[in-house]
């Protein structure tokens, strides 16, 4: 069995997705790739080849002289000015990154977007978007992007969007491993092209603050332990991802670190007005859990708050446990 050959290019990117990938596994990213027979043909930050050597690799791939099993793009594609793509040139080639991506995508067995910028346009697309930044197959939530809504790779799949800012390193490795082993097909992707092994979960699942959420015991300051949804902008009940079920950098997550989930796996997350503030209408958060009717949520919230134990109320407004769990007389601790 041969290797699964992957080319990784960076477009309009901060490099954070590469930094995330490098944290993959106890043995490191390269060892994880090798476990599944994945060969990294070239990566702008991690490969030895530079200059003419790197350009020669790209030329061979575009000409079909070298197999390209998967093309991974990190960062948004800059289509400006006026559709030329010349806001983002690939050094030493005289050609825009956009043109290279279009040519390579036609040769690739699979095309993979690493991160929400490559998937949906992300941060470079925010605001007035003077560079005409876009994702590979989505511009925000709208289908299209640099490659067009109808694009399919040689294997017959749309762009596979490993969304996140940055995506979990496990999502990156597991997606590439699934492709290398032939285990990711159309049914394995959601409507935004995100692999369902992580996109069928919510960031809320496994959150260490879930007891506070259940009783609607809310934090009002970042240092407090309570739920971050009601006042501090947390979107974990609306954001796809198993972020709180697998550790980041050895065990952390946004909410366990005291920071609200900003739904970075979702198209358009960068347009949020105030990441640390919950938008409300008549005192009710506008962004409610994805699969809960509004009336149910309001009724449940009122009931939960009325049943809130004093322990939970006290701990929610503190920066550490001030009242530990205690049993009633006659009950086991």
Please give a quick description of this structure.
The chain is α/β, with parallel strands linked by helices and 333 residues long. The protein has helices at residues 16-21, 29-35, 51-63, 97-105, 116-120, 169-180, 196-199, 210-214, 229-232, 294-306, 310-316, and strands spanning 4-10, 38-42, 70-74, 77-78, 89-90, 95-96, 110-114, 133-134, 138-139, 142-143, 160-162, 280-281, 284-285. The protein has two domains: 4-199, Rossmann fold, CATH 3.40.50; 202-318, Cytochrome-c3 hydrogenase, C-terminal domain (Cytochrome-c3 Hydrogenase, Chain A, domain 2).
Please characterize this protein's 3D structure.
By secondary structure, the chain is α/β, with parallel strands linked by helices. It folds into 2 domains: about 5-200, 3-Layer(aba) Sandwich (Rossmann fold); about 200-320, Cytochrome-c3 Hydrogenase, Chain A, domain 2 (Irregular). Helix content is about 25%, strand content about 10%. The chain contains 11 helices and 13 strands. It has a 5-stranded parallel sheet. A two-stranded antiparallel ribbon has the order 4-8. A two-stranded antiparallel sheet has the order 5-6. A hairpin with a 2-residue loop joins strand 9 (about 140) and strand 10. The longest helix has 13 residues, at about 50-65. The protein starts with a strand and ends in a 17-residue tail after the last helix. The relative contact order is 0.11. The model has no long low-confidence stretch (mean pLDDT about 90).
